[in-house]
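## retry 2 of 3
previous attempt timed out at serialization; input unchanged, resubmitting
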Amino acid sequence: MHIHQKTLARTVHFSGLGVHSGRMVNVAVHPAPANHGIKFLRKDIADATPIPARFNVVVDTSLATVIGYDGVIVSTIEHLMASLAGLAIDNALVELDNYELPIMDGSAGPFTRGLLAAGTITQDKPRFAFLIRRPIHIEQNGKSVAVYPDRCYRITCTIRYDHPLIGEQTCSIEMNQRTFVDEICNARTFGFFHEVEAMQQLGLARGGSLENAVVIGTDGVMNPDGLRYTDEFVRHKLLDCIGDFSLMGIPIIGHVVTHCSGHAFNQSFLQKLFEEKSAWEIIPISADDHEVSRREPSRIGEPKERTAPWQS
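## retry succeeded, writing output
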């Protein structure tokens, strides 16, 4: 893990359709100062306040991760957030002129490539992480999310669908830029044709198409070019998980394990994690992950150890 915070070297622009709204949106991701975090600003609303990308401002998880403040929302942030987290970009201001981010090709690949092309600069403030000291676990109706102590940030994701093309799939990675870029960021969102058709009849998924999602029909994948990976489905769920867990505000040093989870259950877990204050502490990231993992618990009961540096 990087030990200093990073931001973009220059502004990068994206444009496209929102998958649910079907509306065109233009996005500019700007550099931001240290300890700023990731914030979203609606430029189409006069005097709008920047909304921090944090779990405690999530207002909806039914179809995507939606954040909101003072009646203003920003929807479908998970793919861009996954790209920022996957590239260890800590500080950025995301400006957009509509309420939903563009779906692009259904993956985080276009965002990731744009951010990589913009480049990053290292800032003069330390980077912090949640060091997991003991396991935290929630389970309900066949879904579960847990986090365990580990020497690095690791994610294991399992999905199960009653469809022969998917079945049960598991993907496990150590979270770093190389793995994210090479193995995760290009995995696309997916859905079943009958579900997409039903949503569109209800006025949802208006921007959805074979150009921005893997669509599964009765005879298999309907996309002419097929799948990008044999297990693209679980890789995309892991991508969503990276985006959802980035709403903690800083990375984790621990092993996140999800089973049949989604945006809503991931959000429930984050709320549980922040309640379990004795299970973790916030520490500056060391140059040596092994050294970090061997640290003895220190001042775990002190409130200031429970606060991210930009929240104090």
